[in-house]
Amino acid sequence: MTRVQVTRAIVGICHMQVCAVADATDEEILAVCNAENRSGTELGWTTVHRSGRSAPVPCADDPTRLHIMVNC
């Protein structure tokens, strides 16, 4: 499996979910998101949620990975 993998291309209007290794950087995550699933907006995917309601959660299949929300 790659370091960052899109797991839900569309979550609501402008969110998506990725499964990533815990040490993946925001820049690395956004690069994969913008390359594999363009948002359709001028700026593309811009924000990786690391706290709050959309904070990362452990992957059920691999506890070394996190499910992370991204928005445009």
Offer a quick outline of the entry:
The protein has one helix and five strands. By secondary structure, it is an alpha+beta fold. The chain has one domain.
What does this structure look like?
It contains one helix and five strands, in the order E-E-H-E-E-E. The chain is an alpha+beta fold and 72 residues long. The protein has one domain. Strands 1, 2, 3, 4 and 5 form a five-stranded antiparallel beta sheet that branches. It is globular and about 35 Å long. The model has no long low-confidence stretch (mean pLDDT 95).
The proportion of strand residues reads: 35-45%
Distance between the termini: 25 Å
Low-confidence runs (pLDDT<50, min 5 residues)?
Answer: none
Count of beta strands: 5
What shape does the CA trace take?
globular
Estimated helix fraction: 10-25%
**SSE topology string:** EEHEEE
